[in-house]
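Handoff note, outgoing to incoming analyst
You'll be picking up this chain. Sequence as last confirmed:
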Amino acid sequence: MAQQVGFPQPRSDGPLAGITVVALEQAVSAPMCTRTLADFGARVIKVENPRGGDFARDYDDVVNGLAAHFVWVNRGKESVTLDLKSHAGIDLLHRLLGRADVLVSNLAPGAVTRLALSRADLAERHPDLIAVDIDGFGAGGPLSHKRAYDLLVQAESGVCSVTGHPGAPAKPGPPVADVTSGLYAALSILALLCGRARGRGDRAPAVSVSLFDSMAEMMGYHLTYARHSGIDQQPLGMSSPAVAPYGAYATVDGQTVVLGTTNDREWQRLARDILQRDDLADDARFRTNSDRVQNRDVLDAEIGAWCARHDLEHVQKTADAAGIGNARYNVPSEVLAHPQLAGRERWRRIDTPNGPIPALLPPPVIEGFDPPMGAVPGLGEHTDHVLTELGLGPDAIGALRDRGAIGPAYR
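Most recent structure output, in case you need it:
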């Protein structure tokens, strides 16, 4: 464990207290992984280039001068600036790794090899280090050399083809390739830490997670269907190719309600108790889910006509009474004020270099544990503190700064 080889105990009392993670990360995928670990109480040291740092810092300036992407996935970390093109910077990185439990990276193709951080290099110098590399397409394939951004991987993996409408494919709004790969990386780290705690394994294995493999997994239903039917399912907007009825319908008061059924019993209740249409419930065209999928247009027209005669409140109350799943279509500004978030006190205040802002608690709710919800770090804010922990004095730190091996003093 990191605390046994020099780093002081972190202040967290979470399940990952005492675990130190070093991150060589950019954008969303690896930062999502390490923020998840920080949310569980790990200490995350984010190593950034002195010249600008994580490029996501500059995506926009909407959060009191900070970028929304960066604020979202970088709370609770410490920022240390190292020039990894310098011998001194690389030496400092290895001193950090010698005291860390985990290394997470998502650098450009070939970067870890150029930095002598390949699996073989790390196995020789840091055999106990869990090293996780998040890349675009995985090693050993014809696309392994390519840069991979969220949209590119969503397109390559087929995700865009099943999103949107026929003839008008779309990218899902959230960066699902980045987020999913980041969470798979975090899950892998937790599994290996669990195995270590049980004394399994003499040497920490290297781990790689690719955005493409993560999206191929998310496409599991569509790929399975295509393989066994020979059919490429078409996107259906807010509906699903797997079940019917299931979709969005306009109400008389200008709102949109989403109604869904997942089995024959629910369909019967929707038809008889909501639509008051025994004829539809008894119609052989809608007897099974497969039948209903084939006749989706007819059902959507009937449900749409009923919803168009009622306001959203009536539709939802009727659906709730019948035990039918339903939801209100919301835009982001409405979700900010969502009563489900407010009623469960899901918002917290976190610090940033430009003042406090609201942030959502992480999804896991663990009894007796309050997530740290640490501050979003300024570029290089913790450089001097972390180097002091490594045993460097003010003169040595000043000399490194003069040589450009570390960034300017944080103000």
